[in-house]
Automatic annotation (TrEMBL):
Disulfide bonds join C751-C807. It holds the Pfam family ANF_receptor. The chain crosses the membrane at residues 7-26, 583-601, 643-661, 827-848. PANTHER family: OS06G0188250 PROTEIN, OS09G0428600 PROTEIN. The keyword Transmembrane applies. Its main location: membrane. The gene is LOC104226939. This is Glutamate receptor.
Length: 952
């Protein structure tokens, strides 16, 4: 029987509550309507069967109490709670009831995305704000003007998850998500975020909410047969609990596995059964929105726990989570928005005019207060919200930092933070206990537990077996590759920190033109027929579009081998060989140009450059070409000419010295000269070109403009030798174009018959091929570096190729043309051209200045040019210069007569040979003496007189 005291106490509490409620909603006696308390009805739709809803319910009650206690305004927020019972139809029914019967001015909820989707449409129709904590990305704020998202969308966490994956250099992950619009919504955003960190999603596992344990276990076994060991789980708590129990049963919660859970589970981890956490979720990483600690939050948490126990005394201990804090801040923000716009009377709904055949939706009408409220709510901020800085911009809650936690024991431990600006804090996460109790982070992949081996394709061809050869056991059919490439691969696999079992599969490269080649072999990886390719496979950009290559284990490049020709010293035209044809042409052109410049500069002032036209033309060619052997005897009088001649003489000196050295080398040193020195010569001569069967070199030759009809392919070194020996005219080839490793192997055997000619076209070398994004690639590349840096590489080269120093002619020698090219003398010709051009320009400017009166006339341009040409053709009047030279000649002649006074015979002979010689009479003049003549040519006296006459 119930205690009468308790019954009385309950009645008393109910009476006090009724009186208090009436005081808030009834106008105060004696006050007019403007001062009356305004009631704002707000609908709350939650799934009250869930723990999260109960947490939010308590937070909403406390938010309203705190707001009313702190704000003695004339506005009272009245909540109306409805339970959606985890059902979309119930949620829609609750929304219609609240809008039709209660006429609420805003709705908080529902919490599930599928429920919210329909309620948002109703809100848009009646113009009532829908404030929902739903995180699904399918709910668009931009497309729904009356929707406010009061929680972070699930896409915000994708970059934080990608940052964790990048931090540990995992290259592949598996995404596990719920088969629902909510679960699938995160997949494209998470995939894009991972791709930005060069991480691939190797598999997407979809788990139905209604899946039984056997179905979950089968899916886990399927994932366990894959190589990837990094899993991102996006499941709601109820399904996630069952999933991790089965993951433990499948042996996937041990060392070597990595699990990351999204915030939908991490934020409400306390709602998961503690026994599931302790048994099946140890070492899991999780991300969740970060809530900064504060005194206000600590005090609120204490109040919340007390109130929660009062509201739900039969529930186990539940912790406050971020969804409850967002609900508290959302209601607080809503109350502030209402207070901001609700200073006047708040109107009721506007009902439709007609009442005939109305459905419940049609009968709702529209809110005349909603459009004002949504405008105030779309951009609002609480700087001191319990969840931190609570900012809603354009109807969307703005992102906050994410906290990274590690599940240990019954709960979680913070190991780091992530922000959009700085990424993971301190550039590294704290110490993490991984599944299996290991503190060493998982590699992210391993060979499947099913024992599946890597399917490795190996090329099979008829020659060059030193690099790769496939042997098949006749009894067991076991495939064993041998050769340089196979030995390197085996050593690399043995150097790996873990076992990688391999199964070799031969790939034939036949002799017929339509057979498969190395590109087809690489494509087998892209089509998932092979897991790797081992052999003499060159790393190419075109191939890297489909596969990932390891670091190269050989150097490479493309060059040509040609036969050695006969001794060039027997060639009658060898004197033309030292210079290339373009250098001969350029040199000849400069000889003519320099001769012309000198003629222009000397024509007016030097009689040697005057006279008949044919003499002047001859002088243009003679003067510059005579400098070739320094045989020019014509004196130059212009300083500009002297400058040009000095520079040109230096150029000629360098040219003649280089020509002499090159010709001397050709005539005195016996060399292995190639039949050609450039691949372009093969095109010009129409030569046939050979290459290795199945090689990519064929495409290279086509890009070099070789005709396909001139191609011939071969398989062995002996075929190379035979084709080069016969030549193009006898069914062979003029050159073999191939990669350097093969050519060096060929020259090691036939070094005295052939030489390698340049240039060399670079390639990356031989590498091992794996699927795109394969986690094996970085580990194999590191092992390749380890192998090629050790003594093993020298031993394997000696094993398969012998002593490469046995043939000195081929070792590292690339024969190029001995002829000098224009490129070597461009600087010299540039100096000579600039010097001569500058002198010519200077002369032209001086000449035009001196004859400026001609330019100033009113004659036509042609007349002016004719006048200038006439002036240019005339000898320049240098009377002052002649006078000075005249006096110098008088003094010189007097000295000569004085010096020869003791030799009268010589003086008489001098006078008799030169009637024009005048003898000074002491007054500055010379008189002719009859009977005098000049000495014989070649005598000192003759040379002196000739020089004097020339200076005149």
């Amino acid at each position: 029987m119930q205690n009468p005291r308790c019954h009385f106490l309950i009645l008393l509490i109910q009476l006090v509550s009724i009186i208090s409620f009436c005081q808030y909603i009834m106008p105060i006696s004696g006050e007019d309507e403007t001062n009356a308390v305004k009631q704002v009805d707000v609908g709350i739709i939650l799934d009250m069967e869930t723990t999260v809803a109960k947490v939010m319910h308590t937070c909403i009650l406390l938010a309203l109490e705190d707001y009313h206690a702190a704000n003695r305004s004339a506005i009272r927020i009245v909540p109306h709670f409805r339970d959606s019972k985890i059902d979309d139809v119930e949620a829609a029914s609750a929304a219609i009831y609240l809008l039709k019967d209660v006429q609420v001015h805003a709705i908080f909820g529902p919490q599930m995305s599928t429920q919210t989707d329909f309620v948002i449409d109703i809100g848009n129709r009646v113009k009532v704000p829908i404030i929902s904590p739903a995180t699904s990305l399918s709910l668009s704020v931009k497309e729904n003007p009356y929707f406010i998202r009061a929680a972070l969308p699930s896409s915000c966490q994708t970059k934080a998850i990608a940052a964790i994956v990048k931090n540990y250099e995992w290259r592949e992950v598996v995404i596990i998500y719920e088969d629902s619009p909510y679960g699938a919504g995160i997949v494209p955003y998470l995939t894009d975020a991972l791709l930005e960190t060069s991480t691939l999603v190797s598999y997407r596992s979809v788990i139905s909410p209604s899946a039984n344990d056997d179905q979950i276990l089968r899916e886990l076994h399927k994932m366990n047969t894959m190589q990837t060991r990094v899993f991102v789980v996006h499941l709601l708590p109820s399904l996630a609990s069952r999933f991790f129990l089965k993951a433990k049963e499948a042996g996937m919660m041990r060392k070597g596995y990595a699990w990351i859970i999204t915030d939908v589970l991490t934020s409400v981890l306390d709602s998961v059964d503690p026994s599931v956490i302790e048994s099946s979720m140890q070492g899991v990483l999780g991300v969740k929105p970060y809530v900064p600690r504060s005194n206000e939050l600590n005090n609120f948490t204490k109040r919340w726990r007390k109130r929660f126990r009062q509201e739900y005394p039969d529930m186990d201990t539940v912790e406050l989570n971020v969804f409850g804090l967002w609900a508290y801040d959302s209601i607080t923000a809503l109350a502030k928005a209402v207070e901001k716009v609700g200073t006047t009377a708040i109107p009721k709904f506007k009902k439709p005019n007609t009442r005939e055949n109305l459905t419940d939706l049609d009968a709702l009408g529209t809110s005349e207060f909603g459009f004002v409220l949504i405008d105030s709510m779309q951009n609002i901020m609480l700087k001191t919200g319990l969840s931190g800085e609570f900012r809603i911009i354009n109807g969307e809650l703005q992102p906050s930092p994410y906290q990274i936690v590690n599940i240990i024991g019954k709960g979680e431990r913070s190991v780091g933070f992530w922000t959009e600006k700085d990424g993971i804090s301190h550039k590294q996460l704290g110490t993490i206990i991984w599944p299996g109790g290991s503190t060493i982070f998982p590699r992210g992949w391993e060979i499947p537990t099913s024992g599946k081996k890597l399917k490795v394709g190996v090329p099979v061809k008829g020659g060059l077996e030193q690099y790769i050869k496939v042997e098949i056991d006749s009894k067991t059919q076991a495939v064993t590759p041998t050769g340089f490439c196979a030995d390197v691969f085996n050593e690399v696999i043995q150097s790996m920190p873990y076992a990688v079992p391999c199964e070799f599969i031969p790939f034939p490269i036949a002799d017929n033109p339509t057979s498969q080649d190395y590109d087809d072999l690489v494509t087998k990886i892209h089509s998932q027929e092979y897991d790797a390719v081992v052999g003499d496979v060159t790393i190419l950009a075109s191939r890297s579009k489909y596969v990932d290559f390891t670091l190269p284990f050989t150097e490479s490049g493309i060059s040509a081998v040609v036969p050695v020709r006969d001794d060039e010293r027997k060639n009658s035209w060898i004197f033309l060989k030292p210079l290339k044809s373009e250098l001969w042409v350029t040199t000849g052109a400069f000889f003519v140009f320099i001769g012309f410049v000198v003629w222009v500069l000397e024509h007016r002032v030097n009689k040697d450059f005057r006279g008949p036209k044919r003499k002047q033309v001859g002088m243009v060619f003679w003067f510059s070409f005579s400098t070739l052997v320094f045989a020019h005897k014509e004196r130059v009088t212009s300083n500009l000419t002297r400058f040009v001649v000095i520079v040109w003489a230096f150029v000629v000196l360098v040219l003649t010295s280089s020509y002499t050295a090159s010709l001397t080398s050709m005539l005195t040193v016996q060399q292995l000269q190639p039949t050609i020195t450039d691949l372009n010569d093969l095109i010009k001569n129409g030569e046939y070109v050979g290459y290795q069967k199945g090689s990519f070199v064929e495409d290279i030759l086509k890009r070099m403009k070789f005709e396909s009809s001139k191609f011939r392919n071969y398989s062995t070194l002996e075929d190379y030798n035979d084709a080069l020996s016969r030549g193009s005219k006898n069914g062979g080839v003029g050159a073999i174009v191939d990669e350097l490793p093969y050519l060096r192997l060929f020259l090691n055997k036939y070094c005295r018959k052939y030489v390698m000619v340049g240039p060399t076209y670079k390639t990356a070398g031989f590498g091992f091929a794996f699927p795109k994004g394969s986690p094996l690639v970085p580990d194999v590349s590191r092992a390749v570096l380890k192998v090629i840096e050790g003594e093993f590489m020298n031993n394997i080269i000696q094993k398969w190729f012998g002593n490469e120093t046995d043939c000195p002619e081929k070792n590292g020698m690339f024969i190029t043309s001995d002829s000098l090219t224009l490129d070597s003398f461009k600087g010299l010709f540039l100096i000579a051209g600039v010097s001569a051009g500058s002198a010519l320009l200077t002369f032209l400017l001086i000449f035009l200045h001196q004859n400026r009166e001609i330019l100033a006339t009113d004659d036509s341009i042609w007349q002016k040019l004719s006048a200038l040409a006439k002036v240019f053709d005339e000898a320049k009047d240098n009377s002052n210069v002649k006078s000075e030279k005249h006096e110098a000649n008088e003094s010189q002649t007097a000295t000569q007569f004085s010096a020869t006074a003791a030799y009268p015979d010589t003086l008489l002979n001098l006078a008799s040979q030169s009637p024009e010689i005048r003898i000074s009479d002491g007054r500055g003049a010379f008189h002719a003496h009859e009977g005098f003549s000049t000495p014989e040519p070649g005598t000192p006296a003759h040379e002196t007189i000739t020089e004097a006459n020339e200076e005149r």
